[in-house]
Amino acid sequence: MNRFDGKVAVITGGAGVLCSAIAVGLAREQAKIVLLDIDEKRAQETLSRVRAAGSDGLFIKTSVLSRDELNDAARRTVDEFGHIDFLVNGAGGNHPKATTSAEVPFFDLPEDAIRFTFDLNFMGTFLTSQAFGKVLAEQKNGAIVNIASMNAIRPLTRIPAYSAAKAAVANFTQWLAVHMAQEYSPNIRVNAIAPGFFLTAQNRFLLKDDNDDLTSRGRQIIDHTPTGRFGTPEDLIGTVNWLLSDEAKFVNGIIVPIDGGFSAYSGV
Predict the structure, then answer these.
(1) Do residues 20 and 236 lie in contact, with contact meaning Cβ atoms separated by under 8 Å?
(2) Structural domain that includes position 192
(3) Exposure pattern of 46-64 as b/e (b: 16+ CB <10 Å)?
(4) 2 belongs to a structural domain
(5) Which residue in 68, 88, 120, 129 has a CA-CA distance of 20 to 30 Å to 103?
(6) Greatest pairwise CA separation for the chain in angstroms
(7) Could you tell me if residue 70 is inside a domain?
(8) 258 forms bridges with which residues in the sheet?
């Protein structure tokens, strides 16, 4: 399918495991991909995969916590392609020091790790939506997909900052969907996906041990996931492509779980 031929998709955290797969999935549908990340090496690797998938794009080294860098990236994208159609707010993750443990109780979690986690996930989404949402508002069309988490709906033990930040992303998604449609154009839509358990660099230490065996937490998760596995990055592609496409043009302000049934299972 070439349903995104001529479209331009901006993806933050584009060098990450999940967002690089999303980038390739959009490239297969012929979207031009603009990768925003601070990891130049991995972003260039992703861009090579985008080209191998049959499309093209560019990488702009950008911190999602810098308003100036985001505004510059938006200007460069418009200068290069003339417009922006899609924004995927994928930059995020947890910080190991923002995680409770037997050695570090909740009361001793360091402030800098909590602020890092909250800012990366929520402020990174907020500031990016300002910079690129302004372009969509001027165009009076476009679609945004934020990456929330199942933690936003049902907070998990041990990761309070990450859960709170993703809950903020989910709430902001609904707020922004209403704001953009009412204040600028009903042709601008904002939705989110809520991935369940996917193995990433940030959470692997919680789910697998040094021998690549499941930790007790990892085993609990698999036992409570009806599909019996962790998600793979490719599991996100279909839902993201649908939310960005005209097939979902009457879908606005929702958070779609992608969790293998984890949230549906009561444990009994």
Answers:
(1) no
(2) 8-264
(3) bbeebeebebebbbbebbb
(4) no
(5) 120
(6) 55
(7) yes
(8) 195
- Could you tell me if residue 66 is inside a domain? yes
CATH number at residue 203: 3.40.50.720
**C-alpha 260, offset from chain centre:** 18
Is residue 16 within 8 A of residue 8, CB to CB? The reply is no
Q: Do residues 268 and 53 make contact, with C-beta atoms less than 8 angstroms apart?
A: no
Does a structural domain hold residue 130?
yes
Q: Which of 165, 219, 237 is nearest to 17 (CA)?
A: 237
- Summarised one tens digit per residue, pLDDT across range 167-224 is 999 999 999 999 999 999 999 999 999 999 988 776 777 788 888 889 988 999 999 9
Stretch 49-77: mean pLDDT = 98
Taking only the tens place, the pLDDT of each residue in 155-170 is 989 999 999 999 999 9
Number of domains composing the chain: 1
| Active site residues per annotation | 162
The yes-or-no verdict on residue 66 having pLDDT over 70 is yes
pLDDT > 70? residue 136: yes
Contacts of 185 (CB under 8 A, 6+ apart): 137, 140, 141
Nearest Cα to 105, choosing from 146, 157, 164, 69?
157
Q: CA–CA separation, 243 vs 72, rounded Å? A: 27
